[in-house]
């Protein structure tokens, strides 16, 4: 068997290179990861919301739980995007995607529920529902800030990406 380094194969530039010949020293060129553009990311965000709405949330959750292990959400699967770990450039694990897609957003939703519950309790004693409004502003402020954060700094990362240490790659490009 010939050594790839000392006796490189010859091929025409119009042909595809021959397959790996079993040489243990062969290192393929590094794969270039291209981040998804902010527009592509917003499209994915909107498509995830639409898919969740159309499937009444249940279909989207089941679909998500199945494909999170491949670093995708339903919209990312359709749009050929994938979530990668920003620290090692590997596809994000199921757990990392779960933190990014569920734990972080749900923690802000919990804040809304706490404020709303406190508001409901105080309004039953003649208080106002100001706490509920504050909770709603915190939650929806988070949603808007998270969606628009991808335009900040050219990194195309949402807040959840920054906190979960992930990037989203456009694999169609």
Describe this structure in words.
- 51% of the residues lie in helices and 6% in strands.
- The chain has 173 residues and is mostly helical.
- It has a two-stranded antiparallel sheet with strand order 1-2.
- α1 crosses α2 and α4 (94-124) runs antiparallel to α5.
- It starts with 37 loop residues before the first helix and ends with a strand.
Low-pLDDT stretches: 1-13
Structural class by helix and strand composition = mainly alpha
Order of helices and strands: HHHEHHHE
Shape: globular
How many strands appear in the DSSP assignment?
2
Q: Could you tell me the strand content as a percent range?
A: 5-15%
* Range of helix content: 40-55%
* Cα-based radius of gyration, to the nearest Å: 23 Å
Précis, in short:
By secondary structure, the protein is mainly alpha-helical. Helices cover 51% and strands 6% of the residues.
Relevant terms:
51% helix; two-stranded antiparallel ribbon; disordered N terminus; 173 residues; 2 strands; mainly alpha
How is the topology of this model organized?
Layout: H1 38-54, H2 58-67, H3 74-78, E1 81-85, H4 94-124, H5 130-148, H6 159-164, E2 166-170
Antiparallel strand pairs: 1-2
């Amino acid at each position: 068997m010939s050594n790839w380094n000392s006796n490189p194969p010859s091929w025409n530039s119009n042909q595809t290179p021959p397959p790996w010949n079993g040489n243990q020293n062969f290192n393929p060129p590094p794969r270039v990861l291209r981040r998804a553009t902010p527009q592509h990311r917003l499209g994915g965000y909107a498509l995830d919301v639409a898919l969740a709405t159309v499937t009444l949330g249940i279909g989207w959750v089941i679909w998500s739980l199945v494909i999170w292990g491949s670093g995708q959400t339903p919209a990312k699967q359709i749009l050929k995007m994938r979530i990668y770990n920003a620290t090692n450039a590997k596809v994000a694990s199921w757990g990392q995607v779960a933190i990014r897609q569920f734990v972080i957003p749900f923690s802000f939703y919990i804040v809304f529920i706490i404020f709303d519950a406190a508001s409901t309790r105080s309004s039953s004693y003649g208080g106002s529902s100001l706490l509920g409004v504050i909770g709603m502003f915190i939650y929806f402020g988070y949603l808007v800030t998270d969606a628009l954060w991808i335009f900040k700094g050219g990194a195309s990362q949402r807040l959840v990406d920054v906190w979960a240490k992930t990037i989203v790659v456009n694999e169609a490009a």
